[in-house]
Specification:
Blueprint: E1 14-20, E2 29-36, H1 43-48, H2 57-72, E3 76-83, H3 85-91, H4 93-106, E4 114-118, E5 129-133, H5 141-164, H6 170-173, H7 179-188, H8 199-207
Parallel strand pairs: 1-4, 4-5
Antiparallel strand pairs: 1-2, 2-3
Helix pairs in contact: 2-5, 3-4
C-alpha cells in the first residue's frame, strides 16, 4: 500500500506523476500530477488510494471526487496534461507520454521542487528535478493519487468521445481494441482520434485502401 516514504526523501513540495492511456488505439494519453500541500488529508481518501488498476471503476470515481474536494480545501493541488493522438503519431507514444507529464506538472498551481514519476524512464526535459519509480503507484500517495486522476479523467474523456463517435464502444473500452471497437472500425472506419501509428490501425488502413 502507498505511504509517504518516497516523498520524505526530498525537501520542499514533491509531486507524484502518472499516466493513463498508453495502450488504447484512440484518443489522447493523459497524465496527472499531484502535490499534497498538507498531510492532514481525509483519512478515507488515504486509506483508499492505491494503484488505479487495482481499484474498481466505482471506487476510482469515488476517490477522484474526494481528491477534488481536498483540492478545493487547499490540501492538495493537481494538474492534468494531455498529448493528442496526432502528437502520439508524430512523436511516438513514449515521447507523447513525457509531453503529457510535462504539461501536467506545468499546470500545477503549486510548483514542486521534485517529481516522483511512475515508471522506469525520465523525460529528457522536465520542469523540476525528478526520479522514476517502478511500481510507484503502489508505493507513493502522490503517484497513486495522480494515477487515479489520470485514469478517471481519461475515462470521462472517452465517454464524451463515445457521444461524438458512437458505434465503437468507447464508453466501455476507453479506446482499447475490444470486439466492439473492431466491429466499429469495420463498419464506420477510423475517426480523427485514432492513432494511425499504432499497428492495428496501420493494418486496418492498409487493408482498406
Amino acid at each position: 500500500m502507498p505511504d509517504w516514504s518516497l516523498e520524505d526523501k526530498y525537501q520542499g513540495f514533491v509531486c507524484g506523476v502518472d499516466e493513463a492511456g498508453r495502450g488504447p488505439w484512440v484518443g489522447p494519453v493523459v497524465a496527472g500530477a499531484v502535490v499534497f500541500i498538507t498531510r492532514e488529508i481525509n483519512s478515507e481518501l488515504l486509506q483508499g488510494i492505491n494503484d488505479s488498476k487495482k481499484l474498481s471503476a466505482k471506487k476510482r470515481e469515488y476517490l477522484y471526487d474526494l481528491l477534488l474536494k481536498e483540492a478545493e480545501l487547499g490540501h492538495l493541488c493537481y494538474g492534468i496534461g494531455e498529448a493528442s493522438a496526432a502528437e502520439i503519431d508524430s512523436l511516438n507514444i513514449l515521447q507523447a507520454t513525457f509531453l503529457a507529464m510535462t504539461r501536467a506538472v506545468e499546470n500545477l498551481s503549486t510548483k514542486p521542487q521534485f517529481a516522483l514519476i511512475d515508471g522506469n524512464r525520465l523525460p529528457a526535459k522536465f520542469p523540476c528535478a525528478a526520479s522514476c519509480c517502478i511500481g510507484g503507484d503502489a508505493k507513493s500517495y502522490s503517484i497513486a493519487a495522480a494515477s487515479i486522476l489520470a485514469k478517471v479523467y481519461r475515462d470521462r474523456l472517452m465517454q464524451k468521445m463515445a457521444q461524438i463517435y458512437p458505434g465503437y464502444g468507447f464508453e466501455k473500452n476507453a479506446g482499447y481494441g475490444t470486439k466492439d471497437h473492431i466491429e466499429g472500425l469495420k463498419k464506420y472506419g477510423i475517426t480523427p482520434e485514432h492513432r494511425k501509428s499504432y499497428k492495428p490501425i496501420k493494418e486496418f488502413l492498409a487493408d482498406n485502401l
